[in-house]
User: What shape does this take?
Amino acid sequence: MNNPFTLSFGKKPLQYVSRISQTREIVEKFNDIEPTEQIYMIIGVRGSGKTVTMTAIASELRTMEEWVVVELNPTRDLLQSLAAKLYSLPEMHAHFVQAKLDFSFLGLGLSLENATPVTDIENAIELMLAELQRRGKRLLITVDEVINSEYIRIFVSAFQIFLRREYPLFLLMTGLYDNIYNLQNDKSLTFLYRAPKMILEPLNYTAVRKQYMDTFKLDIETAGVMAGLTKGYPFAFQVLGYLYWENRDNKTLEGILPEYDQYLEEYVYSKIWSEASPKDQKILIAMSQSGETKIKNIRQQMNMTSGQFSIYRERLKNKGILDVRTYGEVSFALPRFSEFIQTRMF
Assistant: This one.
């Protein structure tokens, strides 16, 4: 049997822990008869399972007859891509032709007799959405790893117009905290502030332990130690499982930790560290050196007021670096991140 764990990002691995409650929340909201939410943004640190979560939601909706799902590439012209993908839908193309919708001017299909060509891309999409609506269809658009680019800004602005006209379309986007923050701060896209944001929490400890127990036939104690080493971080769950599988006949769990640290550093931690501000780094270094978790003591160590520290605390929480779930305390949310920081101090 091949290794059931993977080091690849974005691809659904053979062994993974699903986010049942979070996935269910979005699916149910989108399926409401009168939806109160038609857009969700999934936010998380690299390796937190944003793409896998989005894919799970899209896959579930695809199984429902009334849903059409379209994936868009954030680096391309999203409106043009959306129009092309809608036009090519096998279940809808014949209806577009029957409705005498001529999109040949936009490079979509052939010219139709006795039909006026549509020359504006937004107008073309509206006509397609109206046809989907008449057929009782709902459209889910997914965009993975969005950034604050011109293509994204144009697309989101158009999406807002389509929403105001009450078309049955829904948007699911994933992104890093900083990229989502920069996008919603654009003065033309302030409506994104009101869009619900799902910040991915750590995986369920019991579920992670159970996966390791079942996959490796481990006792509950050993599987629990492995689950603890991941801190519920999805990429760490995959890396540790991958290495344990590859070395299960010749190395102990302790013996694979150096390689575990190396994979975490090379694949994600170095990038996360490079994106942290100098002040962020100073706070994280101070925490790593002292091992302190009490906010009051860290503030005093950094000579910061409560208001000053709360800004960095909130940002590092949103970035997925700090765990703030215990009142009055902060700790590292990422496994062995403190050990990684200590290698950067010399």
Observations:
- The mean pLDDT is 88.
- Residues 23 and 57 are 6 Å apart (CA to CA).
- The longest helix spans residues 257-275.
- The two ends are 42 Å apart (CA to CA).
